[in-house]
Write a structure and sequence with these properties.
heterodimer; A: alpha+beta; seven-stranded mixed beta sheet; 25 helices; 28 strands; B: alpha/beta; two-stranded antiparallel ribbon; 5 helices; disordered N terminus
């Protein structure tokens, strides 16, 4: 046994509280040794145990008629018909991406891909939800630009080489992310229903096999790092960030899928956060079995590694599997073909214990279930969110731009402008399933085998959530479902990534609880159960927390067909605003992009959501797409109606829009009321008939034209601008900001 | 001359080489089997021979990880001996993206592929101008035909010394040029032929442009040209055999 003395200091360094330590002693019936202390500290870290959030996550809906596997496995699984399923999940890699943007983001992609193919599914799509500090921030701007470049290059490096298309996502900017960028990666894969694999160790005597990269000293305590606030010393934690090898992961993917076909594999789990520790005890706990391993057998790339280091290493591109006894050679043969290490390092036992040996001596012995599933659960104090900016109204008058200049400024603003610069660095077509890629309202990937396509959308709006975490979370669910419906897909299931500050602060905990409850309500209403996800807490630097940033990822299903896309196609087509002009007042205007980019203020509440109305709009929209009536469609979101219309003009066909509205031109053009979709159609009557049948307002608001965008209200011309000038500001903005 | 006669079914057989790290192998396979209506089979990188095939495709991807120069390791792969022999015997060899990089490293095509001018990976649809119809890969095109297909590469900037470039042009061996050069390639070169005109390397992905749902079917022009070339070679062999009788 290790001889390091367990002192209160050492316990505190492992971020374990006194009461947590007492629980460990109680479970073991003795004091833990150094290795065991390390093992408990990573498994009971916030990152692995969800100890602050689990109580509230139970409120989320998780069941649905298509859900095959809900939360608790490596990824959620949904039936897509014809004998096929999809596996998908979103995960954060925020802390590593701040410390080392390129490798942090790259290994974020690697980690979520392993979660997908460990279930037996071949990854077919990746989407990213990114948050950075402003690129033009007076102090942090240069660093923010460097972080963005590094994160994007890291995602491209990993995804492109691995051979999975990166097909969409979102990228937004706020000062609260200056010291704490967010990198949330969503991945989705496809499997035959009968070929799903689970991470549940069964069969006493079955061999436990280690495959993939050798174990090194990288990433030790990564999970604990992700469970603490950043301080000045954090920059010294760079060795805690792992280094990714996408080529090795590609080999691992092919070898695992091929080995699964042998029928000799009983269970499989990737080694992600907390590495060998997590994969052994979780597989044992799920299967109600014990696992015994000998560390001398673990492939190591450095000499003299201690049990503590081997058990806590987060070296990438490793998997642990349980094979059927006597059929190991079939598994070894496949991995040999792909040039990968595959070694039996232990066996499944019947005693429920994780028993770790080195040189034959037991160096750790802990009950799997208690370690994996009985981490302390905290009902942390939380105060209802006050709505930080609610009391304040709009400030001084200031110099306000006219409508047209405001539109051009919004199109150039970092949140709204084209992200082509980013997504052209991603191979978004490899595997030739991409029917709608980046820049679309929702990405659409076909499943070649069954004629079904999967649509995917990620959304999170921290401005809305700052004003009201509950309404903001509901709006994110609504927007994802609207995006899916806009392309004609029926939303079926969801995953979530909850990015928040320090949960030990009651107001932050209040944000988390409110957001989860809002998300629960909306997911129930839109019938999109949560099948898995990730919670990332302690997103704080020097005591400054991020705004609450729950990110939703929702998937929808549709028949494979040519997609309905954003851009207007043909001049002379009627334009219909499905859902109508909507309503707005001063309070509901304070969270808009107009308030941010033009007024530089934030107040009031997010736009008001009427879920009944929202759902009717979705139902009508899907019917319009299914009937082949939409020549183009784009939902109205950030920046409001004028921005949505300007985006639809990017293909070269413009529009003339006329309104008869009582709203001020500011509200009319730029309010962000939900439940609205801009459609161009060759058959407006049929569109109006469908809308009427669903009880949805659908005014004809204009016609597509050559050359430009003109918008007027009650005879007053508000906007008249050429497409070339719209395109110039929209397309060139991000590069200008990066190289300024 | 093409080595093998097409089978009785007249279905052409394409061999798609699979290096560790190839990731467009399945796309080439799908394009041939599903959209071209012929047969494709995979050939593992450690095979010394290619087997009974009419043409070989070196697909896109990151062979052996491409952590050194792209294709620098792949050229030592056992299967490359088979590819060299196949090319020397007059077989049709199509190198796409990483496959082009490998053919250049292996010396089957001249020049080199360097980092893109902007030093970033670029994925987008581009337009290619067909520069010659005098090849088994382009014979089915119209003169000067513009083809739409995607690029997806970080190192696609074609470079060669002036003499080589002049030679490629004077021998009519530039198969395709970019209409809007995306990566800084010299003389806008997107794809080139070897002297014998039976080896084509190009950075754009014809296999990703083989059906309307992919956004373009223009890549089929290349594959159909290959099918015609193989069928005609077979027919002329048969005719020659008949004459001898």
């Amino acid at each position: 046994m290790s001889t390091v003395a367990i002192t209160p200091d050492l316990i505190a360094q492992h971020q374990l509280t006194e009461s947590e330590y007492r629980k460990i002693v109680e479970i073991l019936g003795r004091e833990p040794n150094y290795t065991e202390l390390g093992v408990f500290s990573v498994m009971w870290s916030e990152h692995c145990s969800y100890k602050s959030s689990r109580l509230h996550l139970k409120k989320l809906p998780t069941r649905g008629k298509l859900v095959v596997q809900g939360p608790g496995e490596n990824a959620g699984i949904v039936d897509v018909g014809g004998g096929y399923v999809i596996a998908f999940k979103i995960e954060s890699h925020n802390h590593p991406s701040f410390i080392e943007p390129f490798q942090g983001a790259a290994t974020g992609v690697g980690g979520i891909l392993r979660d997908i193919f460990t279930m037996g599914a071949r990854p077919i799509a990746v989407l990213d939800s990114l948050r950075f500090g402003p690129l033009d921030d007076p102090q942090a701007g240069p660093r923010n630009r460097r972080i963005l470049q590094g994160v994007v290059a890291g995602i491209a490096h990993y995804g492109n080489c691995f051979g999975v298309p990166t097909v969409g996502g979102e990228c937004l900017f706020e000062p609260c992310y200056n010291g704490n960028p967010l990198v949330n990666v969503f991945a989705l894969g496809v499997a035959k229903k009968e070929d799903i694999f689970y991470a549940s160790a069964a069969g006493v005597g079955n061999p436990v096999i280690y495959v993939g990269a050798k174990t090194g000293r990288d990433g030790i305590h990564g999970a604990s790092m992700a469970s603490a606030e950043f301080t000045e010393e954090s920059k010294q934690k760079r060795p805690n960030v792992q280094v990714g090898d996408p080529f090795l992961e590609k080999l691992l993917l092919e070898a695992c899928l091929e080995a699964m076909q042998t029928g000799a594999i009983v269970a499989i789990q990737d080694m992600g956060a907390a590495g060998l520790t997590c994969s052994t005890c979780e597989m044992g706990s799920r299967g109600g079995t014990g696992i015994e391993i000998e560390l001398d057998l673990v492939p190591q790339r450095e000499t003299g590694m201690t049990p503590y280091e081997i058990m806590l290493s987060e070296s990438q591109e490793r998997m642990l599997l349980v094979a059927e006894k006597g059929r190991e050679d079939e598994v070894f043969q496949v991995f040999r073909k792909w040039g990968l290490d595959a070694v039996a390092i232990g066996t499944v036992t019947g005693d429920g214990l994780l028993r770790v040996r080195q040189h034959g001596r037991v160096v750790a012995e802990i009950p799997n279930r208690e370690l994996a599933d009985e981490a302390p659960l905290y009902d942390r104090p939380h105060v209802a969110h006050a709505g930080a900016g609610r009391a304040r109204g709009r400030g001084g008058e200031g110099a306000i731009l006219n409508a047209q200049d405001a539109l051009l400024a919004l199109l150039a603003s970092s949140d709204i402008c084209s992200k082509r610069y980013i997504w052209e660095q991603y191979d978004y077509m490899v595997r030739t399933n991409t029917i709608a890629g980046p820049g679309a309202d929702a990405a659409i990937l076909r499943i070649k085998e069954n004629g079904v396509s999967v649509a995917m959308s990620l959304d999170g709006n921290s401005r809305y959530c700052y004003l009201s975490p509950r309404e903001g979370a509901m709006l994110a669910v609504a927007e994802c479902c609207r995006n899916l419906s806009t392309v004609g897909a029926q939303p079926v299931a969801a995953t979530n990534c909850l990015n928040f500050g320090n949960p030990e602060r009651p107001e932050i905990m209040g944000q988390l609880v409110d957001a989860i409850e809002g998300m629960s309500e909306a997911c129930r209403f839109f019938e999109t159960p949560i099948t898995g996800g990730n919670v990332s807490l302690y997103n704080e630097t020097l005591g400054e927390g991020i705004w609450p940033t729950p990110v939703m990822g929702i998937v929808g299903l549709m028949k494979t067909a040519a997609p309905v896309t954003r851009d207007f196609k043909t001049p002379g087509r009627p334009i219909v605003l499905l859902g109508g002009i909507g309503e707005c007042d001063e309070v509901r205007f304070g969270g808009t992009q107009y308030a941010k980019a033009i007024l530089h203020e934030l107040w009031g509440l997010p736009p008001a959501l009427d879920m009944d109305c929202e759902k009717r709009v979705h139902d009508a929209m899907r019917e319009i797409v299914a009937a082949g009536l939409a020549e183009s469609a784009h939902d109205v979101s950030d920046g409001g109606l004028a921005v949505a219309a300007a985006e639809c003009c990017q293909g070269g066909v413009g529009a003339a829009l006329h309104f008869e509205s009582d709203l001020s031109s500011e509200f009319l053009l730029f309010h962000e009321g939900p439940s609205r979709i801009l459609i161009s159609t060759a058959n407006a009557d049929a569109v109006l008939e469908i809308a009427a049948r669903h009880g949805v307002a659908a005014p004809r608001v204009g016609i597509t034209v050559n050359g430009g965008l003109a918008i007027g209200n009650r005879g007053e011309a508000l906007v008249s601008v050429t497409i070339d000038s719209l395109k110039a500001v929209y397309e060139e903005s991000i590069e200008k900001q990066l190289w300024s | 001359m093409v080595r093998n006669l097409p089978g009785i079914s007249k279905l052409m057989r394409f061999g798609v080489i699979v290096f560790p790290g190839s990731n467009c192998d399945h796309d080439a396979w799908y394009a041939v089997n599903q959209n071209l209506g012929h047969r494709a089979e995979f050939i593992w990188h450690d095979s010394a021979t290619l087997g009974d095939i009419d043409a070989v495709i070196l697909p896109g991807g990151f062979a052996y990880g491409d952590y050194l120069r792209c294709g620098a390791i792949a050229k030592f792969s056992p299967v490359m001996a088979g590819v060299r022999k196949f090319a020397a015997d007059g077989g049709l060899v199509l190198g796409i993206c990483n496959g082009f990089q490998i053919l250049v490293e292996a010396g089957l095509l001249p020049g080199a592929l360097m980092r893109n001018r902007n030093l970033k990976f670029i994925c987008r649809e581009v337009r290619l101008r067909t520069e010659t119809l005098d090849s088994p890969f382009t014979a089915a095109a119209e003169p000067g035909q513009i083809l739409r297909m995607p690029i997806a590469h970080g190192e696609g900037c074609y470079v060669a010394d002036e003499r080589t470039l002049d030679e490629l042009e004077s021998e009519d061996r530039v198969a395709f040029r970019y209409v809007d050069n995306p990566n800084g390639s010299m003389r806008d070169i997107a794809g080139i032929l070897n002297a014998r005109r039976n080896v084509l390397g190009l950075m754009p992905h014809p296999e990703r442009a083989t059906e309307p749902l992919m956004g373009s079917s223009d890549g089929l022009v290349i594959f159909r040209s290959m099918v015609t070339a193989v069928a005609m070679a077979a027919a002329s062999l048969e005719a020659a055999a008949a004459l001898q009788l």
